[in-house]
Design goal:
Elements (H helix, E strand, L loop, with lengths): L4 H25 L6 E9 L10 E5 L10 H13 L4 E4 L12 H8 L8 E3 L9 H7 L4 E2 L3 E7 L2 E8 L6 H8 L5 E6 L5 H7 L3 E4 L25 E5 L2 E5 L17 E9 L1
Parallel strand pairs: 1-12, 2-3, 3-4, 4-5, 7-8, 8-9, 9-11
Antiparallel strand pairs: 2-12, 6-7, 10-11
Helix pairs in contact: 2-3, 3-4
Length: 271
């Protein structure tokens, strides 16, 4: 047989398609369940010395649905509870497309969460504005819907500001952070709120929404998440630090490729 350039290219494309298909199958059957704990030290500008070492448990993008099981969410809860963080934050998207069939199931799976300083949550773009926060509140979670709450941790005031996904106007966010404590944490489902947080001098932002891209391809990267300033992990803008979690569940397609689900344990350190 004569080996031609066309035959070589065709063979490579066929092999590539086969490899991609195999990767997709693995992403569906195995990878989307390979939940782990991500440990990250986040350097925060102006962090009071007494708050150095504060540990925050972070769970986001549960997306409880037909594809995301109660067992997977329970594993996420167990993993973060085992770490015994000082406080726990939930970053939104507890169901998919506001599906009412899973609202109570999602809240029930998250109910065992507890921490000395409390459990706090914001809403994502898949959450409705009434049933989901009511279900979480009934199970001891403090839901911040464009609201701020103040804690005293190690004799230091700590403000937690939580905004809904649809809250985007700088003036609305500024009103919530006005006269806030020197250490203020913004919980914003969408990491694009880093722009507003940096302009306001908010020291720390925690976000989800991106799923880390969910499907991360060699060379190309996370195609579905390129519009975000931070796709996953730690990012910075001016004096504002941000952590974006890859989340627990999956959406649109029940597949994860090179992007395993996670819960995060964040340890704060002075910048």
């Amino acid at each position: 047989m004569v080996v031609t350039r066309r035959l070589v290219v065709k063979s490579l494309l066929t092999a590539g398609a086969g490899g991609l298909a195999g990767t997709a199958v693995y992403g569906y059957t195995r990878a989307r369940f390979e939940l782990g704990v991500t440990y990250a030290s986040v350097a925060v500008a102006g962090l009071p010395p007494s708050l150095a070492g504060l540990r925050i448990g972070f769970i986001t993008d549960v997306h409880r649905s037909f594809w995301v099981t109660q067992e997977l969410v329970a594993r996420a809860v167990s993993a973060i509870t085992h770490e015994q963080p000082d406080l726990i934050v939930l970053g939104g998207d507890y169901v998919t497309w506001g599906d009412r069939r899973y609202v109570d199931a999602s809240a029930e799976a998250l109910a065992p969460l507890s921490a000395p300083q409390g459990v706090f949550a914001v809403l994502g773009n898949h959450d409705d504005d009434n049933r989901m926060p009511a279900a979480l509140s009934a199970r001891g979670v403090q839901v911040l819907k464009d609201a701020r709450t103040r804690l005293t941790i190690r004799n230091e005031p700590v403000d937690i500001v939580g905004i809904r996904y649809w809250t985007k106007r700088p003036s609305d966010i500024a009103a919530l952070t006005r006269a806030s404590a020197p250490f203020t944490m913004l919980l914003a489902h969408d990491p694009r709120r880093l722009t507003e947080a940096a302009a306001l001098g908010v020291p720390l932002v925690l976000s989800g929404h991106t799923h880390g891209g969910q499907v991360v391809l060699p060379v190309v990267g996370a195609v579905a998440a390129q519009k975000f300033p931070v796709v996953a992990g730690i990012g910075r803008s001016e004096r504002t630090a941000m952590f974006v979690s890859r989340g627990v569940g999956a959406v649109y397609v029940p597949v994860r490729i090179n992007c395993p689900p996670e819960v995060a344990l964040l340890t704060l350190t002075p910048a």
